[in-house]
Design brief:
The chain is mainly alpha-helical. It contains 14 helices and no strands. The protein is 55% helix and 0% strand.
């Protein structure tokens, strides 16, 4: 077993270490070593799985140095490690699902697992089933889910896919009177916005010609969070983006009411 100073020195540059060395650091490291490994995008899924196993086994005492002096204060790092693992670009599916299972009622972990570029079906279902304040509240966090991944699976009932409803922005409710009022409100809102929608469609048809004339570059579209994660140096920029923060705020408050 290496001493504490050597472990900390090796953990400062995990991208230069062999995968087996990072696994050994994850098995023997103290809190500072574990945080350095979890913050590095170069650490592989094997070492991250060891971190997850240590959190599950040691709990709040993960990373505590048994050889440290008795008067040395220890600061818990299990919560921060879970956040780093949930958003790590190379964390395995089982690792992210295990982190989410440790925080079932916390919106951040559910949304981070569901909005991950490689989100599992378990994480997608958990985000789709997240309750809203009422059937008329818009669940903005559904926009962060990958629509293509949602459509590839079936719901537990087997009759209708909840994920397809989520991908298309449908709102699920069981109160006929409330749904009729909601439908009437939606129709009135769409009728009020029809002139603006028609202008947008005409502009969309003219967009290629306008692009060639003005030399502008068309905007690239994709899954929400994918381009933000790629642009970040550590691969976790999507959890700090404005879209993620807004979706998390709506998720914690049970959705938002769109203006009529």
């Amino acid at each position: 077993m290496l001493d504490r100073a050597t472990l900390e020195k090796l953990s400062r540059t995990p991208e230069k270490n062999a995968p087996t060395l990072n696994v050994a650091l994850a098995e023997e490291g103290v809190a500072s070593v574990l945080l350095s490994l979890a913050r590095s995008p170069a650490v592989g899924p094997e070492a991250l799985a060891v971190l997850d196993a240590r959190i599950a086994g040691e709990g709040a005492a993960v990373g505590c140095d048994a050889a440290a002096p008795a008067d040395e204060a220890f600061e818990r790092v299990d919560g921060e490690l879970d956040r780093l693992l949930a958003a790590h670009p190379r964390a395995a599916d089982d690792t992210r699902d295990a982190v989410m299972a440790r925080h079932p009622g916390e919106a951040w972990f559910v949304l981070a697992a569901a909005a991950h570029p490689r989100a599992t079906l378990v994480a997608l279902e958990r985000a789709i089933d997240w309750p809203s304040a009422s059937p008329v509240h818009d669940r903005l966090w559904l926009a962060l889910l990958d629509a293509a991944r949602c459509r590839r699976s079936r719901s537990r009932s087997g009759r209708r896919t909840r994920r397809r409803c989520a991908a298309s922005g449908a709102r699920i409710g069981r109160e006929p009177a409330l749904l009729e009022r909601l439908a009437a409100t939606r129709r009135a809102r769409c009728a009020a916005r029809w002139p603006r929608t028609a202008r947008r469609r005409r502009c969309a048809r003219c967009w290629p010609r306008a692009t060639r004339r003005r030399g502008a570059r068309p905007r690239r579209t994709g899954a929400i969070g994918a381009h933000e994660a790629a642009a970040s140096s550590d691969g976790r920029g999507w959890v700090d983006s404005a879209r993620f923060v807004a979706a998390l705020r709506a998720m914690e408050s049970g959705g938002v009411l769109a203006p009529t």
